């Protein structure tokens, strides 16, 4: 087995307190060691995601026992194996879903949550896969039960989650309607495979959905907005429709009339990913390898990287994320 020389210290980004991007600091810290069933990854790139900003603001702490260093997805090279790991070897290039620690030069990952790099993608691009693809696959297809021939409404279509959901739903044979906040973002959604895109700043998405479906409504909605969207989503659903809530950019506490749930026999569900067990996440990883990785390998779908920043500019990356001016993914590079 090859031996890789691992330094004793590394650079990492840390939140010095709760607040805006100004609380992000770069520091030197000891390189972590993998435990049983884990690997140590030399991180080439890490994705920036909305939950990172929520954690920075003090609203989304990592699960007990996890490092407070932010970062939920990485790509790089395996440089050390924990006890009992036989599915990976030193030198393997992987992308991985992690519960924290991604904004660093080295990060510990659970071996079952490491996925191979699809051949057409660089390590930078692959680092933008795990958080979005685990989330979208599990919520759109497992919880939301989307099938070919159905119609799905995807809010935030130009985001990392949205751009992933549009592509996967399109290739699953669904009709895709997306919402986005500008004509440019709507065009981006259409190029990804959306059949229609609604500029929510200019049009009422409920009325547009009804017009696009001859008054029927959509079979599924993927929403990360919440607040006033909850009641409007129930209006936009067809009979037996499913609303899948994966985040709340607006308040999670709302006052709504739930009668449409009864009258249209609707399903209102949702989930979070970070605190789930390794076993549950591993099942998603296996489904991704079976159903989604062949599409990535064939170049039929891919992550879209909007901007890349060095680790030292994590503040600027967070500012861009919170501006919502991006199309697709925002990435950090470590220089490794």
How would you describe this protein?
- By secondary structure, the chain is an alpha/beta fold.
- It has two domains: 9-129 and 275-333, Quinone Oxidoreductase, Chain A, domain 1 (Alpha-Beta Complex); 133-270, NAD(P)-binding Rossmann-like Domain (Rossmann fold).
- Helix content is 29%, strand content 27%.
- The protein contains eleven helices and 15 strands.
- It has helices at residues 50-56, 123-126, 130-143, 160-171, 183-192, 205-212, 229-236, 259-263, 278-291, 293-297, 314-323; strands spanning 9-15, 24-30, 38-48, 73-81, 93-97, 106-110, 114-116, 151-154, 175-180, 196-199, 218-223, 237-245, 267-270, 305-310, 329-333.
- The strands form three sheets. Strands 3, 4, 5, 6, 7, 14 and 15 form a seven-stranded mixed sheet that branches. It has a six-stranded parallel sheet with strand order 10-9-8-11-12-13, with helices on both faces. A two-stranded antiparallel sheet has the order 1-2.
- α3 (130-143) crosses α4 (160-171).
- It is globular.
Uncertain runs are none
Mind telling me the CATH class of the largest domain?
A: Alpha Beta
Name the CATH superfamily assignment of the largest domain: Medium-chain alcohol dehydrogenases, catalytic domain
Structural class comes to: alpha/beta
From the N-terminal CA to the C-terminal CA, the straight-line distance is: 22 Å
CATH topology of the largest domain: Quinone Oxidoreductase, Chain A, domain 1
Number of helices: 11
Number of strands: 15
Tell me, briefly, the overall form: globular
Please outline the major beta sheet: 7 strands, mixed
Name the helicity range.
25-40%
**Succession of helices and strands:** EEEHEEEEHHEHEHEHEHEHEHHEHE
**Percent strand:** 25-35%
Going by CATH, the architecture of the largest domain would be: Alpha-Beta Complex
- The overall pLDDT, averaged over residues, is 96
Rounded to the nearest angstrom, the radius of gyration is 20 Å
Number of domains: 2
Keywords: NADP, Oxidoreductase
Protein name: Quinone oxidoreductase putative PIG3
GO molecular function: NADPH binding; oxidoreductase activity, acting on NAD(P)H
Organism: Xanthobacter autotrophicus (strain ATCC BAA-1158 / Py2)
């Amino acid at each position: 087995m090859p031996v890789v020389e691992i330094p004793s210290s590394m650079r990492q980004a840390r939140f010095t307190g709760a607040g805006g991007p100004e609380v992000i600091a770069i520091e030197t810290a000891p390189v972590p060691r993998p435990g049983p069933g884990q690997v140590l990854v030399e991180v080439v790139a890490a994705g920036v995601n909305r939950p990172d900003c929520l954690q920075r603001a003090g609203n989304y702490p990592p699960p007990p026992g996890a490092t407070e260093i932010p970062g939920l997805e990485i790509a790089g090279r395996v440089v050390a194996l924990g006890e009992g790991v036989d599915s990976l070897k030193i030198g393997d290039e992987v992308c991985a879903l992690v519960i924290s620690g991604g904004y660093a030069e080295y990060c510990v990952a659970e071996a079952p949550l490491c996925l191979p790099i699809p051949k057409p993608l660089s390590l930078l691009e692959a680092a933008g896969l795990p958080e979005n693809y685990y989330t979208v696959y599990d919520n759109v297809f497992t919880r939301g039960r989307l099938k070919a021939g159905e119609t799905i409404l995807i809010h935030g279509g130009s985001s990392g989650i949205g751009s992933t959901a549009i592509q996967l739903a399109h290739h699953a044979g669904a009709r895709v309607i997306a919402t986005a906040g500008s004509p440019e973002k709507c065009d981006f959604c259409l190029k990804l495979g959306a059949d229609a895109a609604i500029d929510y700043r200019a049009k009422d998405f409920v009325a547009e959905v009804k017009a696009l479906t001859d008054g029927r409504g959509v079979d599924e909605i993927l929403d990360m907005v919440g607040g006033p969207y909850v009641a409007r989503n129930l209006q936009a659903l067809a009979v037996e429709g499913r609303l899948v809530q994966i985040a709340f950019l607006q308040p999670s506490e709302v006052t709504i009339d739930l009668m449409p749930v009864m009258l249209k026999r609707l399903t209102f569900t949702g989930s979070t990913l970070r605190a789930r067990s390794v076993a549950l996440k591993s099942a998603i990883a296996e489904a991704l390898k079976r159903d989604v990785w062949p599409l990535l390998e064939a170049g039929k779908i891919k992550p879209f990287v909007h901007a890349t920043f060095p680790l030292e500019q994590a503040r600027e990356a967070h500012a861009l994320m919170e501006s919502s001016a991006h199309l697709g993914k925002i990435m950090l590079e470590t220089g490794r």
